[in-house]
Amino acid sequence: MLQLVDFVVRNRFFLVFVLLEVLSVWLIVRSNTYWGATYFNTSNYYVAKTLAFSNSAREYTKLDEINSDLANENARLHALVTALNQKKPVDAPAGYIPDSVFASRFTYTVAKVVDNETNKTNNVLTIDKGTAHGIKPGMGVISATGVVGKVRFCSENYSVITSILHSQFMVSSKLVRSKEIGYAKWQGKDPNLVDMIDVSKYTKIFKGDSAVTSDQNSVFPPGIMVGRVETVTVNPNQTFYNIVLRLATDFRNLSYVYVVQNQQLGEQENLKLRTVETR
């Protein structure tokens, strides 16, 4: 308190000057229409700027919550689109009516990426969902833009995903325009590019064509983007194209993913196992 009094005493002339200045400005604004209007407009401008900055700061602090809400909404939309596509496939013959349970067999769980690798030969990533959230090894993982990988290991609250940027990972893919089916496989070099193998050179391939997941896999829903055709070459001594795809998923900026559960996967795998045993 004594320090405050001492400060006022030492600066009394300056404080009186400031008070008189404020009083003078107030009197001018009150008695002069022009300066009153100018003051009103100026104060409104700065108040609006301050409020805008405050709102921006408040929105920035809520970005994680907003992103989480968007990811949940995307998961719901993914499930809806997949079910609609399966209920009425574009290339289905006349009279084909798929079972409703089959059409809605895929469900999605949103997860956040907590660790990610892109510069190794065999890359993996870690998500913040595990067995406590219904995640199991073998489930597919996608992003908002395309294929990511497959669940490899799970703990109660975390899962390790084998990325598509892994030398031992392949996903059955189909070229949209030519309808040709092959396998997308990473060669361990550029994290933006993968090869598409086993595509016959006797079919016309278009540069820029989309490669999506095919119907011939039980892990991913059909029609999920894998990438776009970057280059197409052919060796006269080979029967297959050398196709390079630019990945749809940007692994360096991956934040949220969707774990895909095929609720009929166990039934499909059991049938395959029985087929192998009876051969």
From TrEMBL:
Gene Ontology biological-process annotations: regulation of cell shape
UniProt GO cellular component terms: plasma membrane
Transmembrane segments: 12-29
Family matches, as InterPro entries: Cell/Rod_1 (IPR042177), Cell/Rod_MreC_2 (IPR042175), MreC (IPR007221), MreC_beta-barrel_core (IPR055342)
Keyword tags: Cell shape, Membrane, Transmembrane, Transmembrane helix
Residue span(s) of domain Rod shape-determining protein MreC beta-barrel core: 113-261
Membrane recorded as keyword: yes
Database matches in PANTHER family: CELL SHAPE-DETERMINING PROTEIN MREC
Homology family: Belongs to the MreC family.
Entry protein name: Cell shape-determining protein MreC
Organism expressing this protein natively: Dyadobacter pollutisoli
